[in-house]
């Protein structure tokens, strides 16, 4: 450079050099500052802050290409991984406290109090380990650690199978903890030791060390820990023994042993090691260092990089990939890969030089790959072991990015060749670059020939503009428009392959026309490039969903179409030129070609030219002049036309021709025939006689194919006439052609002769010669025949037979001439006015627009969305009036449109006048609300929602069964209070609880309920039935007024309640000797057990107050005695020693001298021997309450204890020894006779009368006798006389159920107050309780009946409101509005907002969990929801992802899971309850309280009446009067009746109304009236049967029969011949089949004209309006019309449903198989009985009918074998008669359906034996997964039976009582009377054997059945019938 251009800066060169270091240095400094900034935000306070470099490492990913990354902390990704990496950084920098602080900063709560650890230690210290102390010490020596709490170690080695031996703990919780402990310790060890290895290798080291197989192998077995595992499973012992033996026999190959299958490694061993680690952690009080000190030697040797061994397959795969070879998975032993010099990179780096890495592959060239596949590449063979390349056929190459490369790689892989290498050079055509550079600068239209690269130029532009938008962060779009769907998909694929932009295509197949603005906005935000047809873009722009300002580039393919009315042209005119921010435009076309490309050779390389052939022929047609003259002059074809017209005239004389649609059919047939005639004439003139005959045959085929099965008789006659005409034409033409004419076409000379004779034309002859001159036909890709006057189809190559050489002519000269002659004169007017802008209508809010051009299609779209049926298609009618030179267009819209008539502006052109009228109609429809702001029909707004609801797309949404929600429970406010904590007297409201039993002599003590609140009248005066096993007790509640209590009485009453409720249903002692926690009397201090949310008092009354109207007198004597007992217990336990309570000081030596043989020493007094029976006593050592049954004089405390186990040694305990050793009590009076006591028991659910509930379920005893299992013997001196009558004790067992019902009624009253419906007669609380009670409650009532009624009431209220408020809305819009309001999602939302979900009772009453004030529950369900209150919660869980949810069961905080639909059902049930209790006004008030507006003004009814009074009925007055007489009602407004019988097809006769709106209203009216009738009449039937009755009564088919029965169809006003034909046919079928109506309807409802049922509903709506909404009057009129209404006696289910219920009832599985045989559906139904397999087949045109036929036949088979449906079986002899008549009727119906004779079921031939299920045989057991959770084994067994078609197994359950040592353990635990259950199971395998097995004892019936089912599964597994895999349960969420 010249020096004069340079300036000396005078800076040292070193400064310049340093400048190059600064960017990297400052980037690192900025990064560290960022890390410090994050550290300050986390704000962990410590003397040693976390190093900033650690935090920097934690926020650095691998993509940064640094020497460090977050991967060492945890191999993860992005944001969540960064959080984990920061957690690791804080652990490294500050230990566990720092990590916990960071976790807390994140928002994860991991804090806990220190006493939680102490509590865990205390719990474990309660486990008894003395019998196993030696084993514990041996295990401790192996571990190397002495446990402070031995129970922790015992728990860590105890398997869950020990439960059967009475062990109540196992290692699973400790294993959960230990798993995380060992994971952390080993990871930390590896992290510290190997700081320089790759993160991936660090992960491999951890995986090799922290896994169950490693712990089982290297720890448990090596240290022989498995010897100490406590379990009770023979299968587990067998697996452990086998595993240990395999290890001992395979010391040199342990890895391959483990890799042979982890299923052979008992997971229990690894779990035990982890649980021991958890136990050590708890025992050391979370000292991690101590745990590692203990476990490091146990775990050694820990995996290191030197001894790390990957699985062989993974190592081999990595090696081959590294060296560029493919791995063939078919392995042989042909030496070792390593012997050939190939080493894994891990070994190569340890001393051997690694081979050079394969050079990185450049971008592959697609064309090169494709060419390589077309040639053979020989492989040089070096030795024998290198085999020759094998030929591979069928290689298919996908022409897309990566396709050829993938195919080539696949070929190399299949041939086992090394991967190819590529060398890439850059190349671009010069003309493409030139066009591309111009298109970048300005809007461009590229005119290039096909194949010259136009698409590639557009792709380059799309890529350039897309990257530009990305850099700027611009959200604008790139649009690619193509005129056809094929081009759209093609361009989409091209853009997707060649760019990395987000691209999507749009076409009509995606139903984009129905998309909403939200759908399009989502697409805009998701994709950068949108490919679509111009019509779609035009529609979207017109709707205002998009605008061109959002578009940056618009590519227009085939842009030469942009003229006339093409969407391209409309886009530019309507939107592009009017847009402010215009997009960049690039157009492409190949026509017209304005200039040639400069370098033609470049194009010819890729686009070879087509071969051009010119042929000239004599254009003069040569046809037999004689035949031509005869054909035209003699008018053969016109003559045939005359014959055809004559036949139509004859047909027109029938009554069917009176209707307008019949005229349309005739006109259409004439038009089609005219077209056929033109084609035949054209072929005869232009192509010759041969082609004319072929064309005629094609026309005949077209006519035949149009004759479908769905056509009615009139259409079939028309088609037959048309076909007959064409066949006669064919005959006339064939007469002119010789039989051997085909021989003339075989040679060239003969073809010439055929031309001379006129069989083919000279033009066709030349075309045949061209094809023959081209040589081999297969080499001809296509042939294009171009001529100015005609257009020919493209012919693909094929054979050269005569028929294939002929082709159809698209355009006909004759047709063109006909069009010209019949052209509308208006079309001759100048087109200048049409091309002018005719105006448009814009919606300012959305930008939507409609022009005059698009308004016609919009009006048609609007009409298409109006309600329709197959007899009426809503469409606009255009009528023109000519006034001088101007046309005026009048549009008549269908009767159900918002506007009926629109008159448009006048114009000189009729087409323009039509468009202007449509534009005006669009404007008025939008202003009236019929079109929304996007100019779409409003009915479309809800169509997508309705469709989603019907198809199940929203199945997981609100108000559906699959959605589960967590909600709280509302508490009854009336039960709360604070008075129990006051220190003075109080006044409470008293309510007497009187009990009367239906068994004489059975007495119960009356109680009084004292509460702070005044109860509602219907709760305060209530009778409640309580159901015991063999008797019923009626509880009567009555108010007593205010009751005053002083402080002493309050305290004594509280003690009485605490003593009895805890003594009977809870525990009076806390702690136990076995747990190490000292026992303490629960009431030993004045600590309050009362909660303010549950505060009331239940006190006994004197027996003198037994009657209802007696004065209330509380039994203070019994209450005071109970308080004295509490005082006594406090004294003896306050002075007790270490060995137990001191009891001899009270009634021992001081009074011993005065005792006599007739006196008994009790703990607190002396009692006479004969006075003890019936005395209520309290055991001082257990706190349990008993009743004395008798004094057993033959037994004393020195007698052998009757609870000894039979397994005890000869050293038998006496009673005295037992109490001494068990409780440390030394009996002072051992020679006293023992007392026989009746134990207290848990409360039962006494609210349901259904068999099977707790209160009335009778169980078999295990020995078959009714023995007293709850009787015990006890020394008297251990008992305290409470001095309370036995009747009081009996009443206590009634109180839980009674109070639960009272609390529920209070809750119902509370909800009633919230709703606050004011009425003189409030809604009964029991009705509201019924409405909030689900079936899961197992009560005698549920919401099901009320829900059914409420659904109808809500439907009626909403329908009536919509009908009156919106007189302009058609039936479709009204229906969509109604659906939106009454759908479950809406009801769920409204109900949740009102808090109804908190009131719902969704679980059966659990008496054991019920608690009274002062009562401490021993059956707690801790809350695991992580929530702090019981308010309504918004937490949803999908059962598809977590099926462990328990529905309805609440935790102790009141949280419970509800099915989302339950809330919607409860809302409907409450509507029903208010309707029952207060009529329609009450129901409407509740609906309003919900938030649904159904109110309307009275004058709206008057307005509806006034509107209907305007319909002219005088011409039909006689018909109106006749119809009124049939209905039985005289209409005040005749127009209402006329409207109700007018079909929409009357529109064409000038009628502007139809019945659709009245039908919408009448549908809801009849639904409500019939439902209410059934609800009132059948109060005791099952809700499901009530639903069936309503379904059988409220349906269109039933209403259609009503119409026919009363001949109402005669008065239907319509204009459709098809409708008349179908009604006539239906009436005839009904008249011929009155004995067989059921099968008639089941044959297919499609044959029942829906119009008839609609007419009945519309008449009901008309009566309702005419009576001014008088529902009683409507029912008075319609009840006789609808009679007979379905009853339970005449209700008939469809055969398939009846068969399904019958099989389910008897325990058989129904197998259904459906196939298609031509047009017939074949259904095969199978039922496997114990001895035979019943198979029946049904054949019908639809699947439902086929199944029904087969089901009917199977029902006959089953009935012959004595199997009856439960409905019939319960009706005795009448049922048999009913079945007989039913069978006869159904049999006859089936015969009619099939039109054939149905044979009786064969007794031998057709009933086949049981068959083997596919895959089920001696060698193919069924694979089953058994989930070890409640119900899991039974479900698996049922699934096996279903798959094998075995009858379901039967269970027999007996109850079992513990004895011996088990009695000792139960007595010590305070649960001596706990029932256990044992179930037996019987399985009948058809044609094989009967298997019986017995399960283990379980605490409940269902669990015992699971045990029996599991035993049966193991037996079947043993027999080889199944192969089971046990899956352990997951924790259930409740």
UniProtKB/TrEMBL annotation:
- Annotated GO biological process: ta-siRNA processing
Claim: Secreted is one of the keywords in the record: no
Its principal location? nucleus
Instruction: Outline the extent of the Helicase ATP-binding domain.
Output: 435-610
Q: Tell me which UniProt keywords the record has, alphabetically.
A: ATP-binding, Endonuclease, Helicase, Hydrolase, Magnesium, Manganese, Metal-binding, Nuclease, Nucleotide-binding, Nucleus, Repeat, RNA-binding, RNA-mediated gene silencing
Ranges for domain RNase III = 136-285, 1308-1479, 1520-1668
Subcellular localization: Nucleus
The protein depicted here goes by the name: Ribonuclease III domain
- Matching CDD domains, A to Z? DEXHc_dicer, RIBOc
Names of the cofactor(s): Mg(2+); Mn(2+)
Q: Report domain PAZ positions.
A: 1158-1283
Drop me one GO molecular function for this one. metal ion binding
Classification lineage: Eukaryota, Viridiplantae, Streptophyta, Embryophyta, Tracheophyta
Q: Which domain of life is it from?
A: Eukaryota
Question: What SMART domains does its record include?
Answer: DEXDc (SM00487), PAZ (SM00949), RIBOc (SM00535)
GO CC annotation? cytoplasm; nucleus
Every copy of the Dicer dsRNA-binding fold domain together lies at 855-945
Recorded hits in InterPro entries, A to Z, give:
DEAD/DEAH_box_helicase_dom, Dicer_dimer_sf, Dicer_dimerisation, Helicase_ATP-bd, P-loop_NTPase, PAZ_dom, PAZ_dom_sf, RNase_III_dom
């Amino acid at each position: 450079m010249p020096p004069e251009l340079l300036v000396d800066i005078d800076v040292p060169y070193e400064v310049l050099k340093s400048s190059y270091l600064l960017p990297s240095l400052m980037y690192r400094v900025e990064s560290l500052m960022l890390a410090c900034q994050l550290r300050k935000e986390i704000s962990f306070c410590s003397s040693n802050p976390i190093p900033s470099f650690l935090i920097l490492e934690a926020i650095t990913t691998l993509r940064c290409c640094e020497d460090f990354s977050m991967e060492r902390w945890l191999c993860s990704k992005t944001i969540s991984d960064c959080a984990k990496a920061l957690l690791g950084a804080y652990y490294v920098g500050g230990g566990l406290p720092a990590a916990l602080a960071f976790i807390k900063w994140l928002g994860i709560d991991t804090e806990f109090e220190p006493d939680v650890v102490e509590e865990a230690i205390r719990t474990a210290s309660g486990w008894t380990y003395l019998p196993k102390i030696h084993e514990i010490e041996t295990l401790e020596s192996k571990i190397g650690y002495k446990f402070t709490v031995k129970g922790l170690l015992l728990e860590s080695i105890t398997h869950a199978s020990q439960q059967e031996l009475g062990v109540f703990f196992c290692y699973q919780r400790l294993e959960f903890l230990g798993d995380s402990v060992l994971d952390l310790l080993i990871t930390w060890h590896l992290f510290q030791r190997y700081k320089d290895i790759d993160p991936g290798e660090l992960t491999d080291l951890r995986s090799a060390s922290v896994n169950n197989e490693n712990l089982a192998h290297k720890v448990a077995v090596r240290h022989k820990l498995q010897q100490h595992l406590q379990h009770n499973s023979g299968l587990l012992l067998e697996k452990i023994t086998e595993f240990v033996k395999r290890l001992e026999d395979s010391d040199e190959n342990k890895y391959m042993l483990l890799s042979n299958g982890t299923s052979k490694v008992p997971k229990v061993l690894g779990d035990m090691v982890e649980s021991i680690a958890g136990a050590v952690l708890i025992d050391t009080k979370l000292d991690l260092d101590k745990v590692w000190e203990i476990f490091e030697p146990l775990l050694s040797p820990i995996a290191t990089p030197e001894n790390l061994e990957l699985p062989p397959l993974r190592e081999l795969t990595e090696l081959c990939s590294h060296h560029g070879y493919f791995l063939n998975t078919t392995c042989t032993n042909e030496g070792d890969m390593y012997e050939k010099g190939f080493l894994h990179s891990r070994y190569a780096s340890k001393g051997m030089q690694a081979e050079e890495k394969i050079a990185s592959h450049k971008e592959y060239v697609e064309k090169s790959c494709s060419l390589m596949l077309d040639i053979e590449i020989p492989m040089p063979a070096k030795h024998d072991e290198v085999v020759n390349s094998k030929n591979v056929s069928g290689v298919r190459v996908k022409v897309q990015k990566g396709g050829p490369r993938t195919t080539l790689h696949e070929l190399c892989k299949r041939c086992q060749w090394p991967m190819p290498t590529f060398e890439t050079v850059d190349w671009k055509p010069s003309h493409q670059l030139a066009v591309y550079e111009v298109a970048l600068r300005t809007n461009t239209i590229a005119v290039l020939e096909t194949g010259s690269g136009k698409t590639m130029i557009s792709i380059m532009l799309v890529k350039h503009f897309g990257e530009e938008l990305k850099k700027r962060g611009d959200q604008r779009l790139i649009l690619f428009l193509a005129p056809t769907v094929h081009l759209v998909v093609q361009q989409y694929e091209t853009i997707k392959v060649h760019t990395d932009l987000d691209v999507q295509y749009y076409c009509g197949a995606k139903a984009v026309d129905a998309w909403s603005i939200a759908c399009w906005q989502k697409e805009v935000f998701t994709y950068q490039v949108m490919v679509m047809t111009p019509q779609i873009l035009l529609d979207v722009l017109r709707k205002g969903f998009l605008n061109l300002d959002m578009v940056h580039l618009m590519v227009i393919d085939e842009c030469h179409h942009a003229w006339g009315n093409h969407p391209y042209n409309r886009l530019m005119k309507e939107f592009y030129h009017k847009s402010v921010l215009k997009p960049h435009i690039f157009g492409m076309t190949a026509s017209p070609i304005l200039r040639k490309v400069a370098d033609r050779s470049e194009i010819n390389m890729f686009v070879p030219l087509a071969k051009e052939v010119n042929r000239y022929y004599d254009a003069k047609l040569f046809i037999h002049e004689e035949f031509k003259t005869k054909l035209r002059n003699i008018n053969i074809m016109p003559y045939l036309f005359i014959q055809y017209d004559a036949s139509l005239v004859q047909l027109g004389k029938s009554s069917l021709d009176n209707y307008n649609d019949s005229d349309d059919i005739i006109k259409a047939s004439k038009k089609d025939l005219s077209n056929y005639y033109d084609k035949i004439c054209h072929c005869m003139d232009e192509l010759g006689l041969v082609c004319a005959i072929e064309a005629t045959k094609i026309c005949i085929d077209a006519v035949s194919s149009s004759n479908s099965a769905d056509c009615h008789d009139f259409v079939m006659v028309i088609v037959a006439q048309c076909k007959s005409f064409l066949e006669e034409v064919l005959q006339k033409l064939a007469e002119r052609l010789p039989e051997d004419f085909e021989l003339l076409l075989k040679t060239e000379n003969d073809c010439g002769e055929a031309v001379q004779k006129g069989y083919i034309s000279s033009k066709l002859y030349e075309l045949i010669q061209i094809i023959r001159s081209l040589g081999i036909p297969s080499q001809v890709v296509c042939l294009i025949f171009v001529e100015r006057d005609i257009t020919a189809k493209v012919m693909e190559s094929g054979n050269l037979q005569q028929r294939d050489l002929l082709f159809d002519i698209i355009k006909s000269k004759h047709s063109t001439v006909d069009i010209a002659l019949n052209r509308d004169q208006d079309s001759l007017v100048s087109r200048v006015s049409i091309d002018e802008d005719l105006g448009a209508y814009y919606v300012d809010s959305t930008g939507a627009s409609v022009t005059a051009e698009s308004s016609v299609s919009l009006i048609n779209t609007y009409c298409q969305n109006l309600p329709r049926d197959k007899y009426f298609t809503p469409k606009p009618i255009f009528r023109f009036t000519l006034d001088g030179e101007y046309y005026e267009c009048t549009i008549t819209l269908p009767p159900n449109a918002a506007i009926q008539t629109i008159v448009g502006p006048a114009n000189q052109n009729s087409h323009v006048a039509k468009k202007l009228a449509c534009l005006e109609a669009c404007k008025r429809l939008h202003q009236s609300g019929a079109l929304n702001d996007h100019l779409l029909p409003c009915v479309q707004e809800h169509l997508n929602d309705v469709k989603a609801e019907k198809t199940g797309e929203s199945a997981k949404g609100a108000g559906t069964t699959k959605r589960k929600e967590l909600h709280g429970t509302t508490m009854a406010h009336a039960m709360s209070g604070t008075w129990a904590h006051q220190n003075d007297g109080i006044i409470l409201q008293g309510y007497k609880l009187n009990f009367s039993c239906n068994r004489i002599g059975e007495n119960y003590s009356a109680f009084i309920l004292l509460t702070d609140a005044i109860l509602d009248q219907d709760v305060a005066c209530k009778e409640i039935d309580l159901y015991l096993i063999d008797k019923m007790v009626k509880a009567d509640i009555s108010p007593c007024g205010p009751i005053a209590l002083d402080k002493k009485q309050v305290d004594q009453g509280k003690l009485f309640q605490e003593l009895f409720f805890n003594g009977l249903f809870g525990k009076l002692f806390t702690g136990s000797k076995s747990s190490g926690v000292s026992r303490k009397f629960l009431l030993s201090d004045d600590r309050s057990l009362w909660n303010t949310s549950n505060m009331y008092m239940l006190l006994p009354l004197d027996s003198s107050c037994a009657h209802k109207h007696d004065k209330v007198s509380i039994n203070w004597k019994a209450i005071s005695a109970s308080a004295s007992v509490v005082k006594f217990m406090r004294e003896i336990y306050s002075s007790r020693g270490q060995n137990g309570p001191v009891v001899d000081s009270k009634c021992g030596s001081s009074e011993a001298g005065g005792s006599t043989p007739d006196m008994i020493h009790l703990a607190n007094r002396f009692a006479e021997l004969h006075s003890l029976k019936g005395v209520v006593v309290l055991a001082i050592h257990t706190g349990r309450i008993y009743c004395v049954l008798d004094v057993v004089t033959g037994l004393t405390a020195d007698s052998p204890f009757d609870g000894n186990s039979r397994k005890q040694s000869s050293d038998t305990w006496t009673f005295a020894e037992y109490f001494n050793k068990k409780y440390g009590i030394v009996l002072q009076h051992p020679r006293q006779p023992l007392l026989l006591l009746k134990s207290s028991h848990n409360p039962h659910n006494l609210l349901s009368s259904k068999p099977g509930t707790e209160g009335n379920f009778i169980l078999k005893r295990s020995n078959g006798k009714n023995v007293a299992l709850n009787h015990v013997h006890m020394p008297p001196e251990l008992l305290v006389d409470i001095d309370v009558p036995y009747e009081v004790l009996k009443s206590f067992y009634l109180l839980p159920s009674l109070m639960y019902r009272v609390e529920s009624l209070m809750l119902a009253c509370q909800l009633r107050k919230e709703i606050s419906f004011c009425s003189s007669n409030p809604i009964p609380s029991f009705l509201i309780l019924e409405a909030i009670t689900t079936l899961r409650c197992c009560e005698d009532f549920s919401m099901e009946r009320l829900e059914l009624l409420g659904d109808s009431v809500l439907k009626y209220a909403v329908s009536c409101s919509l009908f009156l408020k919106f007189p302009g809305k058609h039936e479709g819009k009204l229906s969509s509005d109604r659906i939106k309001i009454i759908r479950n999602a809406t009801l769920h939302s409204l109900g949740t907002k009102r808090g109804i979900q908190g009131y719902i009772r969704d679980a059966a009453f659990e008496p054991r969990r019920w608690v009274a004030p002062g009562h401490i529950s021993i059956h707690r369900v801790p809350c695991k929801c992580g929530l702090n209150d019981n308010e309504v919660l918004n937490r949803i869980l999908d059962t598809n992802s977590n099926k462990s949810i328990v529905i309805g069961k609440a935790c102790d905080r009141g949280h419970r899971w509800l099915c989302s639909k339950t809330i919607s059902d409860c809302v409907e049930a409450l509507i029903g309850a208010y309707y029952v209790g207060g009529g329609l006004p009450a129901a409407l008030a509740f609906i309003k309280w919900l938030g649904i507006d159904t109110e309307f003004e009275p004058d709206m009814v008057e307005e509806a009446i006034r509107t209907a009074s305007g319909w002219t009925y005088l011409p039909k007055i006689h018909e109106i009067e006749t119809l009124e007489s049939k209905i039985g009602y005289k209409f005040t407004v005749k127009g209402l009746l006329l409207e109700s019988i007018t079909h929409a097809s009357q529109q064409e006769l000038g009628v502007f109304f139809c019945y659709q709106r009245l039908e919408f209203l009448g549908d809801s009216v009849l639904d409500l009236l019939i439902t209410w009738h059934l609800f009132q009449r059948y109060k005791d039937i099952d809700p499901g049967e009530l639903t069936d009755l309503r379904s059988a009564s409220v349906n269109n088919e039933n209403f259609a029969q009503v119409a026919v029965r009363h001949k109402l169809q005669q008065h239907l006003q319509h204009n459709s011949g098809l409708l008349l034909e179908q009604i006539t046919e239906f009436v005839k079928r009904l008249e011929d089949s009155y004995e067989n109506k059921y099968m008639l309807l089941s044959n297919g409802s499609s044959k029942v004209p829906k119009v008839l049922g609609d007419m009945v509903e519309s008449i009901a709506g008309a009566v309702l309006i005419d009576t001014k909404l008088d529902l009683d009057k409507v029912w008075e009129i319609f009840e006789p019309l609808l009679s007979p209404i379905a009853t339970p006696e005449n209700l008939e289910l469809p055969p398939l449903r009846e068969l399904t219920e019958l099989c389910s009832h008897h325990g058989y599985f129904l197998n259904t198989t459906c196939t298609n045989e031509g047009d017939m559906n074949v259904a095969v139904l199978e039922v496997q009985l114990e001895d035979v397999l019943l198979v029946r087949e049904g054949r019908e045109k639809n699947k439902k009918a086929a199944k029904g036929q087969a089901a009917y036949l199977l029902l006959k088979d089953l009935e012959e074998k004595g199997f009856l449906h439960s409905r019939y079986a319960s009706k005795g002899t009448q049922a048999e008669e009913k079945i007989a008549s039913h069978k006869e009727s159904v049999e006859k119906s089936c015969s009619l359906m099939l039109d054939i004779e149905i044979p009786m079921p064969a007794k031998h031939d057709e009933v086949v034996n049981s068959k083997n299920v596919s895959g089920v045989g001696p060698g193919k057991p069924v694979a089953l997964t058994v989930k070890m959770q409640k119900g899991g084994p039974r479900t698996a067994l049922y699934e096996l039976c279903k798959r094998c078609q075995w009858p379901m197994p039967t269970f027999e359950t007996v109850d079992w009582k513990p004895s011996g040592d088990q009695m000792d353990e139960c007595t010590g635990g305070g649960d001596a009377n706990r029932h256990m259950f044992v179930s037996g199971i019987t399985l009948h395998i058809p044609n094989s054997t009967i298997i019986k097995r017995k399960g283990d004892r379980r605490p409940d019936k269902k669990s015992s059945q699971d045990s029996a089912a599991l035993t049966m599964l193991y037996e079947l597994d043993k027999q080889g019938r199944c192969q089971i895999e046990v899956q352990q349960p997951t924790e259930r969420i409740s």
